[in-house]
Design brief:
This is DUF4352 domain-containing protein. By secondary structure, the protein is of the alpha+beta class. The chain has 1 helix and 8 strands, in the order αββββββββ.
Length: about 200
């Protein structure tokens, strides 16, 4: 009997070792499989998320920041600054008994722009000026200085010859502008240079 037990015990031990080894291999294989599945899921989610963001960007377009208003601009040697812009309403009241009211169905806007020579030499006369008012829809409104001349300062140095770094002069013009117009800009011009624009402060 003792001999039989001695022969059988090594076999039992071997079987148990093999079973444990098989179980360990199964656990390792299963763990590796689960790990691979998890990695695949993570990759798929990342790809889907990136694709979704890309589609949102393509469909919605890039966010466009509104441009800041421009109240000062230099063209050539002339630096222009918005001094004031005022909605005068639809009536320019007569200032004495010899005048008549100037009226419109829309509104009058008075614009005062400072101009200074930042160059090295004096400018010639009429080298610079104020042009039209333009609204956000591209509508153009010329000045009515001829009709409203008595409401303008005298002298009114628009286009005056400017000496280098002298104190800025103020050019005043009055415009007749539609009531519905918004985003108003005033054109500023210098001879032989592309025109520029300054924004008006009217609270539109």
């Amino acid at each position: 009997m003792k001999n039989n037990n001695n022969l059988s015990n090594p076999l039992s031990v071997t079987r148990r070792v093999r079973q444990k080894g098989a179980i360990s291999r199964i656990i390792l294989i299963g763990g590796a499989f689960i790990l691979v599945v998890i990695i695949i899921i993570i990759v798929l989610l990342a790809v889907r998320s990136g694709s979704s963001k890309k589609n949102q960007n393509n469909s919605g377009g890039a966010v466009v920041e509104p441009s800041l208003p421009v109240y000062e601009k230099q063209i050539g040697d002339i630096n222009f600054t918005l001094d004031s812009s005022e909605d005068l309403g639809n009536i320019l009241k007569a200032q004495n008994q010899y005048q008549k009211d100037v009226t419109t169905t829309e509104r009058f806007i008075q614009v005062v722009i400072g101009a200074q020579n930042k160059g090295k030499m004096a400018t010639g006369p009429y080298n610079w000026d104020l042009g039209n008012i333009v609204d956000s829809d591209g509508r153009i409104f010329p000045n009515v200085n001829n009709a409203a001349s008595s409401y303008l300062p005298n002298p009114n140095p628009c286009g005056l010859s400017l000496k280098p770094e002298f104190y800025p002069v103020s050019c005043t013009k009055i415009y007749e502008v539609s009531k519905i117009s918004k985003g108003l800009k005033i054109e500023i011009t210098v001879k032989d240079k592309p025109a520029g624009f300054l924004d008006l402060k009217l609270g539109q």
